[in-house]
Design brief:
This protein is of the alpha+beta class. About 65% of the residues lie in helices and about 10% in strands.
Amino acid sequence: MDEKRADAFFHALSDGTRRDILRRVLAGEHSVTALAEHYPMSFAAVQKHVAVLERAGLVTKRRSGRESLASGDVEAVRTVASLLREFEDVWRGRVAGIDSLLAHETPADTTSTD
């Protein structure tokens, strides 16, 4: 994955309202008007959140008459999950290395010559 796409994913997911919108549209297609009813903000503000998700590739929109319908892109979410697993694997590798070093470390000599 290129860094610009990863940046767009994490920017889009950095906001709680956008994560909530994504949850809703992953469960099923919603009109932006219906989505706006769930948030204490203007319709325009919800449209902007949906646009950020769309630019990141996490949401697709289509027109149906006068309505704009949003759907979550499951493949994009899987891509984000895959990226997070890569980070987890790096972390687990570091922890395993530390565990290995600790297992091979000899106990300090505690006998005193005094």
